[in-house]
Structure formats: structure tokens, C-alpha cells
């Protein structure tokens, strides 16, 4: 820390030494410049072609006189030039800042000389400059009172016709500013050299202003389009305000573009931009390092700046120009205070604090250099001011870039954590919902197999339908989450498309009849017996479309149709459509119904139930398979949802024998002993009842540890293993059984069917999976399949 701080101070001192040039020494003139004596400046031995010389020294002064060249005035005094009037003695007293005067100087030039020119900067606050009786430069109009004086500021390079002797007359008047007179030297030298230097100064000013404006626009866009970080906003505003300081002060480059810009508007902008830039930088510092900033002090600082802005806006320049001297003291305190904040932030290892500390040190040196120039003590070198400004803004850009990158990275981490939490929440909720639902579905199936009365069977049908409907909603939410995480798996296998579609129609036949509509299926006669496809996903997509069509159709029909678009020996392209005569969909709503949780009617009084996930899931599933879901609809006349997909054609093979033959014996599991590992008592009752009906014996372990303790390879032929249990879960219990060398079939009974869950189950040695809530026939099928292999 100490070593870095010493290096930091060394760099700042070096930059300060390079940036400042003491006034008597001129970078363009290595020799001592001649000084005017008693109103005469002898330059006959000065090389004006290669060096620029300030015409400083003792000039004649005529107070309260706007003397014309060649006229005679009896009384004058010799005074120092350049110098403010308040520092100038006239008849033994210091002059006031408001008034008018004339300066004269005789200049002796060398005989051999190139085209010469004067470099004339702004004066307080209007002047006219004569050379040998001719006006060669003027800023505004000097007059004898406020009404006749027109102030104006600019920097001018003016050539003149050189002679051996020059008689210079300078008229100055001020009634609008708190200062009067002049503080900047008039320079004489080669016209080409002075013009080139002036153009270079303007180029630096315009380039730097452009950089600041573009930087401000960039950070403003970053604020508006990003996370609305106020530090970024305040730095953008700081760039805008301070950019005016570059071209609106010093050489007043702005007047070279807008020569008619009024002096009063320009000076108001000059002071307001200074006060606002400092206020924005204070607020920027506050929001950049919130934890390290004394907020009350910042509040007072910005309050003072805003108060000065108000004063500047409502008062004349003669009044508010007096504010600059006390404000300079405040400015030094402000920068010192900001530096202390950055030092504290650096110690606390805040983001970009070392760059903030470095850039603040650089801007501190620049401000000090400008203050010294304002008080006519030093001349800051333009190139080093330019480099300093660029260094400052570069460091600040690094800070905000690091801050933005950190915020983006943090947002990404938070989003990933949110997705992980959401996934875990959905998985947990799925398990918690499906576990009791398993008991509801299971007990319903048991009661339906006990020859219920007709009225009881009707009630059980309603119960089973409602349970399956709830299960479908849960599965839709889980499927959507799996798709969003990119974990969905498309598994192609030989399927009989006709059987799948007929099963879907058969499953929704009763629902259509209850709605009083016809459910029609129309399949092309040339459909192949076997194609390669994901049977589960086809069932899911078509089932969603059929279910939606029935839901939104109150009369007429719903038709599932398969049409062959094209066919080759290897593949076939099918158009699968679901048409209805329902309510239809308005054109303006056809684009949004594929969004998640969206329905045609989404108000609180909507007449149709559902989560609004079916179409969104179907659309995403088809996209994953290289297809798309299309819609043709007219409000009040029905809809047609369809997709076109190409499937590989497979050679027809002999049908596999079903594990459950039609004439299956009444007790298919007779002689089989099953170890049920399940902590939910109701699920145990359901499984035990089914196993008993199938002739199997069963024993129960309420957690994985009990399963390990009670498992007996001589008795237990198969294990039904729940995954989520206290003490020891199903994963660990299965893993330890396999590590013990047990080869007994283990079927997972789980409510979690995410792809990574399946992968984990098979990797630890589970034999098969049955999802809760399970279909009794499916469970029996799985058990028989494993026992046949024993």
C-alpha cells in the first residue's frame, strides 16, 4: 500500500512539473525576451521569424481616455502591461475595475523580417487595437459608459504591414465584469508560426470536446439502456457540462464556430457549466463509492453549487463574476475531499478505486494549473493539459467499465442462482404435489377395480379425471422449465403413429362427448407402419392441440387429420393438423397465444380454464425438432393448428409380444416378494394393495437405511425405491446396495423426472423408473419385465 502510494505521488509530481511553465520562461523562446521601457520596446536584435515575443513591460497609460492614434494627450503615466486595473496605480491610487483607458507602445523592429502578426487574447471586457493608426483587431466595442460598451471575448491572430517602427494603440473599456484591464500578453512573431500554434490549440480544444461529448453520450446510453446506475448518469452529465469549459473558456474556441454568440449568454454558460460540472462530479463520487462517502458533506457541496447556478442565472455578470474567487477555494477543497474518498475506497479495495485515485490526482493538477493561469502566475502547456484530460477521462471510463462489468457479472450470477433456485423449487413442488396425488390416483384405481355401483363409478371417473388434469398442469410447468434450461431430450424410436393418434382421440372422446361435439380422426391410408420419432413428444404436442380445440369449441366438431405432403423410400413428410369449429382467434391475438401463460381471454372473468402453457410448450418442442407450429383462424368460425414434420421410415418388423397378454392370470406376481422403500404412508398403502391384488408379498422400509438393514437377497426379488426420504435417500441406498454386490432389480418410484435425475438414477445402478402418480398397469408391466429376466 505504501509503495503504491509513493509511486502515485511521484507520478503526480512529475506530471505537475511537465504541465506548468513559470510565466517568465516561454517554451517558444529559449532566450530572455526584451522588456518595454518607458513606452518603448526594442526588438531590432530579436529573431522574430523563429521566436514569439510577448510585448510586455512599461506602456503609456491614459485613464478615462479613449485616445485615437496620432492625437495629443498631455497627461499619461507609465504602467506595467499586462495588469488588472485594480492592481494599477494612477495618481497614487489604485484604479477601479469599471472604466476605460488607452495604452500606447512604440516598437522598434529589425530591418530583415518575414510577415509578422500579433496574437491577441481576450481582455476585460472590450478592446480595439491599432497599429500605425489602423485598426487590426477588436473584441466588442469599447465605450465611455455601460450603454456604449459592447463586451466580447475571443483570441485572434492578426497580421500587419511591418515597418521599422510600430506605434501601438490599445483602447480597453469595462463596465460589465468584476475585472477590468488585461492579464494576458499580446505576442508578436511570424504570422505562419502564430497561426499554426493557434490552429493547434483550437484542434486540441475541439478534439477534447468531441471526446467528452461522445463519452457523455456513451455513458448516458449505458445508463438508459443498462441498469440505471446513477454514477454512470452523473458522469455523463459531468462530461456534457465540462465539455463547454474546454471550448467556452481559455482561447474561446467556440467563437471561431459561432462568431455571433452573445457575450452575456457565453459568460453565463461559462460559469453555470463550471458550477454544474463540479456538482455532477460530487454526485458521481457519492454514487460511485456510496459506502465510503460522507453523504451530508456531499449534500452541502452540491447545494452550494446549485445555489451558485441560481445566482448566476438571475444576476448580471458584474455580480456573479465576483463569485469565482471564493469558488476557487471551494473547488480546491472539493477535489481534496474527493481524493480522500478515493483513498478510503482504495483502502477498502473498492472496484476501480486505484484508477479513481489516479484520475482525481491528474484532474487536481489540471485545476491547479488553470487556477494559477487565472491568477497570471503560470502558463499550462496545452499538450500536457490535453494529455491530462484524456488520462482523466480514460481512467474514469475504466472505473465505470469495471463497475458495469462487475454489475453484469453479478446480475448473471444472480440470474443463474435464481434459475437454480427456481429449478430446485419446481422439483421440490413437483415431488410434494405428485406424492399425495399418487395416493389419490392409486386409491381411485383400486376402488374402480372393486366393482363400484354406477353412481360411484361416475364419481370415481370425475375424481380420476381431475387428478389427471392436475397432473397434466404440473407436468406442463416442469416441461417448460426443462425446455428453458435446455435440458429437454428428444429420443427417437420406432413408433406406430396411427396407434398414437388413435389413442389420443380415444382418451379425449369422453371429454368431447361431454361438450356435445364430435371428435373426428382422419388418417392417410398410405401412412407407414413404423416411423422414427419421439412418441412422448408427439403425444404431448397433438394432445395439447386436441385438448385446446375441445376446450374452445362449444358446438360442431374437432378433427385430427394427417396428410402426406411428400414421401421417399427413406423418409416421409407429414402435415398433422387439428381443426375445430370453435370460437376462433382474433388476428391481433394470434401472435401472442404462443407466449407462456397466455390465453385468448386473460381477464378475471375469462370463461376458459388452464395455465396457458400448452401452446407455448408445443411450439418449443416442435422447434427443437426442426418444425414449427402454424395457425389459421377466423374469429367466430374456428381454428386450424398444424405442423409439418419429416420422419424417417422404418422397415416393418414383427410386433413385440406385450408383457401383459390379454388372458393374464389373476395373480401374475404370485411367489414374488417386493421390498417397498417409501416414507409416505398413503403411498405405501396404495402400492401394497396393488401388489396384494397381483399376488405378490411385500415388506416396507421407511427410509434407505432400513432398506439396507432389512434387505434379504434370499427373500426379496425386487425393490421399489422412493428417492426422497429421511435418514438415507434412495440414491445412497441404491448406491450402497450395488457396492455390496447386490444385483436385485431396483425400480425407482419417483415424482422427479428431470433428465439429469434420470441420468443420475441409471448411473448408480437403478434398473428402471416409474413416475408418480403411476398407472397400475404400467407398474405391473415394469415388475413383470424385471421378474421375467430373473
Task: Give an overview in words.
It is a single chain. The chain contains 19 helices and 27 strands. With 790 residues, the chain is of the alpha+beta class. Mean pLDDT is 82; it is low at 1-31, 602-609 and 654-664. 47% of the residues lie in helices and 18% in strands. It folds into four domains: 26-190, Jelly Rolls (Sandwich); 197-381, no CATH class; 491-648, Histidine kinase-like ATPase, C-terminal domain (Heat Shock Protein 90), CATH 3.30.565; 673-789, 3-Layer(aba) Sandwich (Rossmann fold), CATH 3.40.50. Helix 2 (191-225) runs parallel beside helix 10 and helix 12 runs parallel beside helix 13 (535-551).
Total number of helices: 19
Number of domains: 4
What Rg, in angstroms, do the CA atoms define?
Answer: 45 Å
Give the beta-strand count. Answer: 27
Share of β-strand residues: 15-25%
Large-scale geometry: elongated
Write a short abstract of this structure.
The chain is of the alpha+beta class and 790 residues long. The strands form seven sheets. Strands 2, 4, 5, 8, 10, 11 and 13 form a seven-stranded mixed β-sheet that branches. Helix 17 links the parallel strand 25 (718-722) and strand 26.
Amino acid at each position: 500500500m505504501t509503495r503504491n502510494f509513493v509511486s502515485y505521488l511521484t507520478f503526480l509530481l512529475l506530471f505537475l512539473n511537465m504541465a506548468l511553465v513559470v510565466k517568465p520562461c516561454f517554451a517558444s523562446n529559449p532566450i530572455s525576451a526584451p522588456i518595454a521601457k518607458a513606452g518603448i520596446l526594442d526588438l531590432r536584435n530579436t529573431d522574430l521569424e523563429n521566436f514569439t515575443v510577448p510585448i510586455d513591460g512599461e506602456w503609456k497609460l491614459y485613464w478615462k481616455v479613449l485616445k485615437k492614434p496620432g492625437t495629443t494627450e498631455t497627461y499619461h503615466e507609465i504602467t506595467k502591461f499586462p495588469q488588472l486595473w485594480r492592481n494599477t496605480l494612477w495618481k497614487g491610487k489604485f484604479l477601479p475595475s469599471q472604466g476605460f483607458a488607452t495604452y500606447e507602445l512604440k516598437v522598434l523592429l529589425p530591418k530583415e523580417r518575414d510577415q509578422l502578426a500579433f496574437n491577441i487574447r481576450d481582455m476585460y471586457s472590450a478592446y480595439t487595437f491599432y497599429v500605425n493608426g489602423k485598426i487590426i483587431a477588436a473584441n466588442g466595442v469599447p465605450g465611455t459608459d455601460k450603454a456604449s460598451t459592447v463586451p466580447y471575448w475571443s483570441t485572434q491572430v492578426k497580421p500587419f504591414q511591418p515597418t521599422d517602427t510600430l506605434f501601438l494603440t490599445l483602447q480597453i473599456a469595462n463596465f460589465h465584469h468584476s475585472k477590468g484591464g488585461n492579464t494576458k500578453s499580446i505576442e508578436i512573431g511570424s504570422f505562419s508560426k502564430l497561426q499554426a500554434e493557434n490552429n493547434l490549440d483550437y484542434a486540441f480544444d475541439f478534439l477534447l470536446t468531441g471526446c467528452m461529448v461522445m463519452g457523455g453520450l456513451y455513458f448516458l446510453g449505458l445508463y438508459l439502456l443498462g441498469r440505471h446506475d446513477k454514477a454512470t448518469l452523473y458522469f455523463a452529465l459531468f462530461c456534457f457540462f465540462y465539455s463547454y469549459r474546454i471550448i467556452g473558456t481559455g482561447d474561446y474556441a467556440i467563437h471561431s464556430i459561432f462568431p455571433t454568440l452573445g457575450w452575456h449568454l457565453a459568460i453565463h454558460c461559462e460559469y453555470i457549466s463550471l458550477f454544474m460540472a463540479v456538482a455532477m462530479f460530487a454526485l458521481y463520487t457519492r454514487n460511485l463509492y456510496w459506502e465510503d462517502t460522507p453523504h451530508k458533506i456531499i449534500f452541502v457541496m452540491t447545494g452550494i453549487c446549485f445555489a451558485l447556478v441560481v445566482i448566476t442565472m438571475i444576476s448580471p455578470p458584474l455580480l456573479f463574476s465576483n463569485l469565482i474567487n471564493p469558488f476557487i477555494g471551494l473547488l480546491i477543497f472539493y477535489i481534496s475531499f474527493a481524493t480522500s474518498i478515493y483513498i478510503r475506497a482504495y483502502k477498502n479495495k473498492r472496484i476501480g478505486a486505484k484508477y479513481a485515485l489516479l484520475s482525481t490526482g491528474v484532474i487536481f493538477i489540471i485545476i491547479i494549473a488553470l487556477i494559477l493561469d487565472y491568477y497570471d502566475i503560470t502558463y499550462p502547456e496545452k499538450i500536457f493539459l490535453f494529455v491530462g484530460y484524456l488520462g482523466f477521462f480514460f481512467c474514469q471510463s475504466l472505473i465505470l467499465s469495471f463497475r458495469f462489468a462487475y454489475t453484469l457479472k453479478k446480475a448473471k450470477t444472480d440470474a443463474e442462482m435464481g434459475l437454480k433456485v427456481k429449478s430446485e423449487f419446481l422439483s421440490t413442488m413437483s415431488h410434494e404435489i405428485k406424492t399425495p396425488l399418487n395416493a389419490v390416483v392409486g386409491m381411485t384405481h383400486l376402488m374402480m377395480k372393486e366393482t363400484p355401483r354406477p353412481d360411484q363409478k361416475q364419481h370415481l371417473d370425475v375424481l380420476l379425471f381431475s387428478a389427471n388434469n392436475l397432473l397434466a398442469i404440473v407436468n406442463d410447468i416442469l416441461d417448460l422449465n426443462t425446455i428453458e434450461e435446455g435440458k429437454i431430450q428428444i429420443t427417437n424410436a420406432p413408433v406406430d403413429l396411427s396407434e398414437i393418434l388413435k389413442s389420443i382421440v380415444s382418451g379425449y372422446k369422453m371429454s368431447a362427448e361431454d361438450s356435445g361435439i364430435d371428435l373426428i380422426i382422419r388418417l392417410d391410408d398410405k401412412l407407414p407402419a413404423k416411423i422414427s420419432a419421439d412418441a412422448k413428444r408427439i403425444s404431448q404436442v397433438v394432445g395439447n392441440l386436441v385438448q385446446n380445440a375441445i376446450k374452445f369449441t362449444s358446438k360442431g366438431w374437432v378433427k385430427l387429420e394427417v396428410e402426406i405432403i411428400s414421401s421417399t423410400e427413406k423418409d416421409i413428410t407429414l402435415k398433422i393438423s387439428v381443426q375445430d369449429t370453435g370460437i376462433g382467434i382474433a388476428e391481433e391475438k394470434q401472435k401472442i397465444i404462443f407466449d407462456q401463460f397466455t390465453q385468448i381471454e386473460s381477464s378475471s372473468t375469462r370463461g376458459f380454464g388452464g395455465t396457458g402453457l400448452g401452446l407455448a410448450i408445443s411450439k418449443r418442442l416442435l422447434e427443437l425438432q426442426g418444425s414449427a407450429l402454424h395457425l389459421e383462424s377466423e374469429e367466430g368460425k374456428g381454428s386450424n393448428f398444424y405442423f409439418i414434420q419429416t420422419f424417417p421410415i422404418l422397415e416393418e418388423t414383427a410386433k413385440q409380444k406385450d408383457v401383459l397378454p390379454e388372458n393374464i392370470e389373476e395373480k401374475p406376481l404370485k411367489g414374488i416378494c417386493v421390498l417397498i422403500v417409501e416414507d409416505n404412508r398413503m403411498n405405501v398403502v396404495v402400492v401394497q394393495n396393488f401388489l396384494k391384488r397381483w399376488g405378490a408379498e411385500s415388506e416396507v422400509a421407511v427410509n434407505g437405511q432400513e432398506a439396507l438393514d432389512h434387505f434379504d437377497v434370499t427373500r426379496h426379488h425386487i425393490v421399489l425405491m422412493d428417492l426422497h426420504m429421511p435418514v438415507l435417500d434412495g440414491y445412497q441406498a441404491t448406491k450402497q446396495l450395488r457396492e455390496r454386490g447386490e444385483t436385485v432389480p431396483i425400480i425407482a418410484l419417483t415424482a422427479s423426472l428431470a433428465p439429469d435425475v434420470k441420468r443420475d438414477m441409471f448411473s448408480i445402478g437403478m434398473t428402471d423408473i416409474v413416475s408418480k402418480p403411476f398407472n397400475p398397469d404400467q407398474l405391473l408391466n415394469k415388475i413383470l419385465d424385471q421378474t421375467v429376466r430373473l
